[in-house]
Design a protein that fits this description.
Blueprint lengths: L2 E2 L8 H5 L5 E7 L2 E6 L2 E7 L5 H9 L6 E4 L11 H21 L4 E5 L6 H14 L3 E5 L1 E2 L2 E2 L6 H10 L2 E5 L14 H20 L2 H4 L5 E3 L10 H10 L1 H4 L15 E3 L5 H11 L4 E2 L15 H4 L5 H17 L3
Parallel strand pairs: 1-5, 5-6, 6-7, 7-10, 10-11, 11-12, 12-13
Antiparallel strand pairs: 2-3, 3-4, 8-9
The protein binds zinc ion (ZN).
C-alpha cells in the first residue's frame, strides 16, 4: 500500500510558473533520469519509478500483483503558490488516474492535494472522488505547520465526508538543515516526522472529532508506536501541557489507525502487531527506493504468522483502510 510513481515526463513547472525549485526530470541515459530541484541534483531514478510495465514485472517476482501508488513526497510543493500547487497536483493525479485506467488489475492510486489552501485542496478532493480515487497522500507537516492546526481541519472533514482514506508520509523533515550528513533526515528525521504527525492529529483532536476518517501512517508509524509508553506517560504526568485540546489518552487510539509494515525488523513488526492488532498493519514497501522493503514482504513470510494474519497484512487490511467496512 505504499509505493511511489512519477510520470516519465514532467513539464518544466519552474518555467511555466516563473519561479521556484519545482522538480524536473533529465533523462540522461536509457532507463535512468535525474530528478533536478531547480539546478540542484536531487536523486537519480530508474525506469521502475515511471514505467507501469517494469513495476508489474518486478512485483510479480514477489507474487504481488497490486500496488497502491502515490507521488514522491518531494512533488508535494506545499511551498508553492496555492493555485500553482493545484495545477501541479492535478497533473500528477491525472497521470495516476491514467495508469489505473490502463492497468486496473495492478494499480490503485492515492492523489495529492494543495494542503496549503483548504478551499483548493477540497476542490481537488472532490475531483479525485469523481475520478474514483480511494484516498490521498499528504505530508507530515505543511510548511512546518502541524496537521492538527485548525486550518487543516476542513480538509480532513472533507476526506471523511467523501470517504477518502488518508496516507500520512514524512517530508520536509524537522532539523534537516542541522543534520545533513549520514542521511540523517531520512534515518532520524522521517520516523520523528511521522510521530509528530500522529501526535498532532491525536492531541489536536482531529481523530477524535472525525472517528470515521481512516488514517494510515508510513514506515509503521515512524517512532510513534515504539515510543507510545513515553507519550502516554507524558499525557499522564503533564496533562496541563499535553491534554489541552483532547482529553482522550493517546493509547486509546492504538488500533484506530493503520500503519504499513516497512520496519525492516521482524521483532519490531511483531511488537507493532501486538500493540495495534493484526487488522491494522498493511504490506507497505516504499518501492522503488533503496530504503524500501524491496523484497516485498518476504521477511513477513518468515515470521511464522498464522495464515489468517498474513492474509490480513498482505491485502485485507489495505482494502479495509481504503474502502472502509472494517
Ligand atoms: Zn515513501
Amino acid at each position: 500500500m505504499h509505493t511511489h510513481l512519477l510520470p516519465e515526463r514532467l513539464p518544466n513547472f519552474a518555467d511555466k510558473f516563473g519561479y521556484g525549485d519545482f522538480i524536473h526530470l533529465v533523462h540522461h541515459r536509457p532507463g535512468f533520469a535525474r530528478m533536478m530541484k531547480g539546478d540542484t541534483f536531487f536523486r537519480e531514478i530508474a525506469s521502475n519509478c515511471w514505467s507501469p510495465e517494469v513495476r508489474i514485472g518486478e512485483y510479480l517476482h514477489f507474487k504481488t500483483p497490486v500496488q497502491v501508488v502515490c507521488t514522491i513526497p518531494v512533488m508535494f510543493s506545499y511551498w508553492a503558490k496555492p493555485a500553482d500547487c493545484l495545477d501541479l497536483s492535478m497533473f500528477l493525479n491525472d497521470h495516476l488516474a491514467g495508469v489505473v485506467e490502463d492497468f486496473p488489475e495492478h494499480y490503485i492510486a492515492l492523489g495529492t492535494i494543495p494542503m496549503q489552501d483548504a478551499d483548493l485542496a477540497i476542490r481537488e478532493l472532490e475531483r479525485l472522488k469523481g475520478l474514483g480515487f480511494p484516498g490521498v497522500q499528504i505530508g507530515s507537516n505543511v510548511n512546518q505547520l502541524n496537521l492538527g492546526e485548525p486550518q487543516f481541519f476542513p480538509i480532513f472533514e472533507a476526506c471523511e465526508r467523501l470517504d477518502l482514506a488518508v496516507f500520512v508520509h514524512p517530508w520536509e523533515m524537522m532539523g534537516e538543515a542541522d543534520m545533513r550528513k549520514y542521511w540523517l533526515p531520512w534515518l532520524v528525521g522521517m520516523p520523528a516526522e511521522t510521530c509528530r504527525a500522529a501526535c498532532s492529529l491525536i492531541f489536536g483532536g482531529v481523530m477524535e472529532r472525525l472517528p470515521r476518517l481512516r488514517f494510515c501512517f508510513a514506515h509503521a508509524g515512524g517512532s510513534f508506536i515504539p515510543t507510545i509508553g513515553r507519550i502516554q506517560h507524558g499525557f499522564n504526568c503533564r496533562p496541563d501541557l499535553v491534554a489541552v485540546d483532547n482529553p482522550v489518552p493517546p493509547r486509546d487510539y492504538l488500533g484506530r489507525f493503520w500503519v504499513d509494515s516497512a520496519t525492516h525488523d521482524p521483532q519490531l513488526l511483531r511488537y507493532i502487531l501486538e500493540v495495534v492488532g493484526d487488522e491494522k498493519v498493511c504490506l507497505g514497501t516504499d518501492y522503488p527506493f533503496p530504503l524500501g522493503d524491496l523484497e516485498i514482504g518476504s521477511f513477513i513470510e518468515d515470521m511464522n504468522l498464522s495464515q489468517a494474519t498474513l492474509e490480513r497484512i498482505f491485502y485485507k487490511n489495505t482494502l479495509a483502510w481504503l474502502h472502509g467496512g472494517g
